[in-house]
Every structure is written in structure tokens, then in C-alpha cells.
Amino acid sequence: METKNQEEEEQLVTPWEVSAEKGGKIDYDKLIDKFGCQRLDQSLVDRVARLTGRPPHVFLRRGVFFAHRDFSDILDAYERGQKFYLYTGRGPSSEALHLGHLVPFMFTKYLQDAFKVPLVIQLTDDEKCMWKNLTVEESQRLARENAKDIIACGFDISRTFIFSDFDYVGGSFYKNMVKIAKCVTYNKVVGIFGFSGEDHIGKVSFPPVQAAPSFPSSFPHIFSSKDDLRCLIPCAIDQDPYFRMTRDVAPRIGYHKPALIESSFFPALQGETGKMSSSDPNSAIYVTDSGKDIKNKINKYAFSGGQDSVENHRKYGANLEVDIPIKYLGFFLEDDAELEHIRKEYGTGRMLTGEVKKRLIEVLTELVERHRRARAAVTEEMVDAFMAVRPLPNMFN
């Protein structure tokens, strides 16, 4: 039997907590085995390129989105002329988003544009109210602020419905929640999510809220008489437990199992032991950071795989496995050839840490500046328009 210490040192990945094994980094192969999803292989990436007629997104090409459940079924159906819809979300626990929060939205925008399909975005203001001890009003305010950052990613309003749970849950959505809840025993939910007797019942009853958007009948104003429509959920892999539960329930209540395409975590500046923390501002680059902030954080906090002296660095080269600037460039530097060149030069010691950090600062400053401009253009009226309960008549055109 494992000792308490061994258990504590094992990696932990839940929707609320992510930590690597002691001193290590997240082992994604182990996670795939544990969760029971599939690795996203090159043949699927090539297939996406073929079906959409455009180059695959950088997050697909470089394995940022690395795991899936039934993604091939979605592509099979699409090839037969059957459309699907996208569902993703955000738990609004802080006013400013960091780059890790943008990853699923940047990728979801690509999927929406490439496949020309509708999208529902859930803001779980109720969840954050229960987990983060925020007031109802503060959770609702944060949801609206976060909606502005999401809209700034460039979603198409004619195919996108953004909703907050406090505003939208009821009617058909609530009926599905009840159907789901009846199929999941207390023992099952404890097994999946690790709830304890000390957790309040709000937490135990929340999972059906996140499961319900996987079924088109939860949105009768958009998908009326389209109960057969499949759902694809792009998300970080820590959200997988919700959808394991959902997929288990789906056939029992007459729905398709939602398909998933799942990303690895965007590493903290200090290194790859887990995901970035909103509570430590120096662990992350925020979309509200100034150019000066970004420069300072990268130079001061970004963990380097370079050697301790220029002489040693020229001799041995950088350890790219642990180098955070290289990891960040892997997410956000579009040009494959340039990235390969930097990896080669830096790995052999011909390029120094300072030069790599300088290039990263340029890339991130441009990204954040572009986001800031887009967000500044989002008005309260635009938020209202995206969140209005309305049909989307041109969602598949």
C-alpha cells in the first residue's frame, strides 16, 4: 500500500488543482493513461488541414492540443456533411486573464473559423462563487469583465453565444441538468472529483451545470429540433473529469457523447511544475501587463535552461527541455523555421539566453498589445449582444 508521502508526491490534476510530482513536471503520458483519452496523432492533424483547406493551427502543429476523445468521429461526421457545435468556457475568478487563459480561446476561434460552426461559451460565475468564496455580485461582475477579453479574441457574433450561469440556467438547460444529476451517484461524483464530507453541497451539485452545455437541447433558441447535433469541447486537460462524467451519462439520456480536444498546461514563468497561478502575479504574463512589465518578468523570472557562464554556455549549449522562453516561443512564435533556427542555435550554445528572451519579449509584447487594443474596442453593448438569448440563423453559412 502507498504511504501518505508517496501519495502527496504523485502528480495531481483536477479542475481546481494542478501539481507535478515533487520537483518534476507534469507527465502527460501518465495523465492520458489515467484519464483514458487518446493521444492526438499527426494523421488527425493532417486530416484537419485537408478538411478545412487551411494550415493547422500552431497549437495543433506543435502538440499544445495533444489529447482527444472521439475527435475522429467528429471529423468523420463532418466529412459526411454533418456539422457540429463547439462548447468551451471560463471560470471567472479574476479580473485579468493571463496568457494561459487565452490558449483555449485562441484555439477555439481557429476551430470556429476553420469549420464554420456555432459556439457556446459558458461563464461559470456560480462555480467561482462557490469555490473562491466570492459574492454572487462580484462573480457576475468578473464574468462580464472576462467576457470582454473573450470577445477580444475575435469570435464571430453571428455564430457565438456567451452565457453566464447565473443569468441563463433554467428552462431546457435545467431539465438537462436534472436528467444528468439523476444518473450520477454520490459515490461516483466523489470518485471522479475527490469531494469530501467537508465540502458544501453546492460543490457536489455543480458538475451537471458544466455538463449540460454538451447537449444541444440546452440551447433551444439556437438548436431547436437539432437534438442530433454533435458537440466538440476544446479545453485544458484538467477539465477532463467533468466530461468523463458527461460522456458516461450521455447515452443513458439519449444524447451523443461530447467529443473533446485537450491541451497541455501553459507553464508558469518559474518552470513546468504545473499551471500558472492567478494568485502569484510574477508566475504569469497577464493581458493587462505593459511592455515594461513583460520585459521585466521575462528577464527576471523566466526560468532559463542556459548555462551559468557564457563560457560554459558556448561549450555545452542550453537545456531546451527546461527552458521556459523556448516553451513560450513554441506557443506564440508563428514561424516554424524561425523557431527551429532558435532551438538549434540556442541548444548548441551559439545563441545566448539574453537573445532568446529578447525575441520572446518582442513576440509577447506584440500579442498583448494587440489583445489590449481589441479589448479596448469592446463596448458594454457588444457584451450584451453576444450574451443576448437569440437565434443564430447564419451559424452554418
Automatic annotation (TrEMBL):
InterPro entries: aa-tRNA-synth_I_CS (IPR001412), aa-tRNA-synth_Ic (IPR002305), Rossmann-like_a/b/a_fold (IPR014729), Trp-tRNA-ligase (IPR002306). Belongs to the class-I aminoacyl-tRNA synthetase family. Its main location: cytoplasm. PANTHER family: TRYPTOPHAN--TRNA LIGASE, CYTOPLASMIC, TRYPTOPHANYL-TRNA SYNTHETASE. SUPFAM superfamilies: Nucleotidylyl transferase. One of its GO terms (biological process) is translation. This is Tryptophan--tRNA ligase, cytoplasmic. Signal peptide: none annotated. The lineage of its organism: Eukaryota, Viridiplantae, Streptophyta, Embryophyta, Tracheophyta. GO terms for cellular component: cytoplasm. It comes from Forsythia ovata. It comes from the Eukaryota. One of its GO terms (molecular function) is tryptophan-tRNA ligase activity. Keywords: Aminoacyl-tRNA synthetase, ATP-binding, Cytoplasm, Ligase, Nucleotide-binding, Protein biosynthesis, Transferase. It is found in: Cytoplasm. Its EC number is 6.1.1.2.
